[in-house]
Amino acid sequence: MTLKVVVVGAGVVGAACAFHAASAGMDVAVVDRGPVGAGTTSRGEGNILLSDKEPGPELDLARLSRTLWEEIGQELGPASFELEPKGGLVVAGTAEGLAALHAFAARQAAAGVHIEPVTRLREVEPLITPGLRGGVLYSQDAQVQPVLATAALLRAAVRRGARLHTGEVVGAVTGGAGRVTGVRMGAGEVLPADAVVNAAGTWGGEVGRRLGAPVEVLPRRGFVLVTEPLPVVVRHKVYSADYVANVASSDAGLETSCVVEGTRGGTILIGASRERVGFDTTMNTAVVARLAVQACRLFPFLREVHLIRAYRGFRPYCPDHLPVVGPDPRVTGVVHACGHEGAGIGLAPATGALVTAHLLGRPWRGADPAAHTGLLPDRFFTSGGAPQ
Amino acid sequence: MGRPSDIIIVGAGPAGMAAAATALAGGLRVAQVDSGTAVGGQFWRHPPQHARSAIPTDDLHHGLREYRALSRELSMARKAGRLDLRLAHHVWSAVREGDGFAVHAVDRRDAPRESAVTLHAPRLLVATGAYDRQLPFQGWDLPGVLTIGGLQALLKGGGVTAGSRVALGGTGPFLLPVAAGLAARGVEVVTVCEAGNPLAWLRHPLPVLRNPGKWAEGAGYAFGLARHRIRVRPRTAITGAEGGDRVTAVRIAAVASDGSPRPGTERRIEVDAVGVGWGFTPQLDLLIPLGCDLTNSADGNAVVAVDGGQRTSVPGLYAAGEACGVGGAALAVGEGHLAAQSALTDSGSAAVLGNRRLVAVRATVARQRAFARAMALAHPIPAAWSSWLTDETVVCRCEEVTAGAVRTACTEGGAHDHRQVKQLTRAGMGWCQGRMCGPAVHCLTSQNQVYTPAERLVATPVTLGALADLDEQQ
Amino acid sequence: MSEIIIDGELLPFIEGQTVAAALVAAGRVAWRTTRVQHRPRGVFCGIGVCFDCLVTIDGAGGQRACLVPARPGMAVTTGRDGDG
Predict the structure, then answer these.
(1) Same domain, A307 and A229
(2) Cβ neighbour number for residue B110 with a 10 Å cutoff
């Protein structure tokens, strides 16, 4: 019998789940209250990064995902979503910073990441500020245009029989023994389901609650700056080694350590701040100014370049900064796939493959549930199914 | 920076000038910011003060008596140190700050150099006006094709005409003063294509009859047009422009009431410049990020919702002029006075407009709004305008996205608003951030809803250097 | 009459005119090519909204010719690679 899967969320993670599940022959419906890729997916920079990941469960997922992005590119055409294996360049301004970066990179290399120490930064990145001590080049770092990628994945899923519904999920329908048999929509209709995938991103906490399987997913606000279009002047994703510390930080306040990169459209993206302010959408000009300072420090020529746009989004994070991917132990049939914080674009294909593997009960496209146990929702629960 | 202000007014056009005059009369200390080099906005655009004898423009203007009276009041207050007038300052963001507001601008008096300036005040009044609404057609991106507002700005601001044989097209009463102004400077205005139907006014005769001032203004233009033998062709549209490095001809056609060209009526007219405009788009870039409630306007635009005293839904924030609904200078002046009056009473100062004056201003505003509504209904965007487009017609001028690409985003990409089209095609992602193509892309995707522009957190480009300096100031 | 320098050539203007007005007064309505299709562009909206009229002024790129007042001796370069 064909497994009926409802994927909640038409962002990049939901699209990847639908793509893989449909590819595995499942009967897939994707539901979202809004348009395709209109949430956090459209508010990022399209990062596919290995460089910022500590060895551990997230890096394992990221390495698989990097391979899967390549495969998806081959299958759907890399140009259709601007897949660009541009590489990342992490730089350090002090001898201590560089030593720490090298030590970090060595551990990543041991976990299978390609690294290449760089001493003459300007040979790699001609307009970078002189006077930096050195850096590490991560050739596997890449970029996609996230909304195009999401649309391409969903189109491919639809070609394999998936359907797209616009509407809000208000609850789960459960049968005997607490097993999900469908989701109830806002309009009252019920979509039958053997499994429901919570790919609601930053809103994954709320969707989990409605499905009777709450997980803690919180918003972390980020601003991204966009400059005027220029000829190619920044070749890689360039950031300071401080970035890694900020990504992993749990501080409540503002943290900025910018990533600077060019895009296919000619604009330069400068991201991104991290603030825990709930879903507060107001403009924070101090944050924008701070990002500008840091970008100009890395690339002094940017002082003369115009900012033409800024946007902000809300990254979904779990308290331990790892995504939650796998079956919920409390409600049979609910599978979580959210909480990717700022790495959702990069991690989407592997997340989709891993969710599909969980649903199949066997490995799928290199994703083996037994190899990614660190991402399971079980880690949040002690007993009785209540969040810790 | 001088003494703190009681209110910041962004915009020094008719609404901003009137607001400043009333606020100053009530004893408030006012900071007024405008990107232009002189007060007056678009309607009363003038060359900078020092250049007015070299570039005479008085004969191109209407309502100059009011302009001069307001200018005088502003200039006296400035001398007395009660008005902090910041010309050539471009505001890129306005945010709430504590109980008040911070307005972030760049000072470009010494352009291209720019430096960051931040103003603070407990109250903010936004009177940022509007710009021409455009509908693409084949060849609209050829050099020599301008917005009618652009033709007017060159004329009023620089005494310059962009061509010697000009065709104008679009819809709305603004076509007429531009035609008259060009003709007054020796330009041969070969045709004025008004897509609307003049008889449409008759469906709303009362607002027109109740505005004798508009009659006089209209009669003035009509006289100017007759004197220069300019023919206004109703129910006609410019459907294409031809040329290479510059426009050399337009194609015009009679159109049905839905805007679709009548077969067999197309003709070609040689020109060396073209002006087009389809009403206006209110400039809401500062107001939307501040979280103001919006409302629908009869001309198809979302506008800022205000109460009878021009208060927005955000406490301490007022709006006046075209941002609250396109309606022309007389309406803007009235709204400016009302907004400042509210700011005075809300801050515990004595009101300036006495009862009789207040009643009169309110009556003017109500009358002008009714007139604007009648005008909007008589000059709609024609429903079938997109039938002029071919798949190759450029819709987004900045990123050069074609009508075909926009249509594909809707049919194959499932896009159903201009934001999604932007994500899928880059239409609206370029320098102008969709200010030119936004209304058109909106019409191509969801014709029957009002146009709400994309949220723009950065209202005008600002160099990263100026932003970095702002960080160091903080 | 004062002059600005456009791509190395002197262009007269009347004090108070913008760079765009000076160019238009000299009969020029295009001075830039677009990034993607290399089409000619110049002044369109005339009020700083459309960014068609971008030029480089005294070395600073991305300047709207329709907003910047011409000043004697100002060096304007048009068609800079990457403008718009």
Answers:
(1) yes
(2) 10
